[in-house]
Amino acid sequence: MKFFVVTLFEEMFHAWAESGLVGQALKKQNFQMEFINPRSFTSDVHQAVDDKVYGGGDGMAAMFGPWSEAIEFAMQKEPSAQVIFLTPQGESWNQKKVSEFLQRKPSQEMGIRSFVFVCGRYAGFDERLVKAYADHEISIGDYVLNGGELAAMVVMESLVRGLPGVLGESSSFRKDSFGEEGLLECPQFTRPQSVKGMDVPSFLLSGHHKNIEALSRAISIVRTKNRRPELLEKAQISSKELEAAEKLIRQLSEEERDLLGVNS
Ligand code: 6GU
Description:
Alpha/beta knot; Trp Operon Repressor, Chain A; two-stranded antiparallel ribbon; binds 6-chloroguanine
């Protein structure tokens, strides 16, 4: 997978790209990244990449010329690339979209799966940039950021996690919260067994893997019901399954249920 990133602030990406799993994946060439700065496609002395908007609004918007040339520069290198504009007006990003984007096959005639992330600044883009180039407009949530860079990193990181060879255990991508099942994860614990009066729930110490699995899933279901009821609706958990989960959870002590977030 290759990411072209059209941005005025390449430096924002450096620490992220060098750290943790993303850093490892980049080193192992599970994905590649190339930055393109619209500023290098300007010819005026001020190197302007934005301009006042028509109609007298008070913001500045990304101007067509240098941004279109930056996008076209990427598309010349990888004509099959999908162009993604990061904007608060876009469709909201979620794990289902991550899977869709990972499955999207490159067009037959061209090489690796590639995306061009266009990170706007200012009050937005000249709309004709969007019209001319965007395959997708994506937002990462209902709040406003100063630019698309953080959103691009969020989207790229969620995609990189799903690439083959990036996560250690092959199943951990699908099992994550919002993975295939759309449930929140069961809480986890490490040593010590007891800390600040809180004990690791005893079923986790039992060694009965069937039982651990069944209870963990029951906890996932009830936790999702308590914290994110709208996710449980989508997760296709039958009322019978929910009842069974609630019954299983009654085996736990009051303290354990409290710690696990499954007290209603
Ligand atoms: Cl993609 N861009 C900006 N500027 N703000 C956002 C966003 C994107 N998603 C949520 N807020």
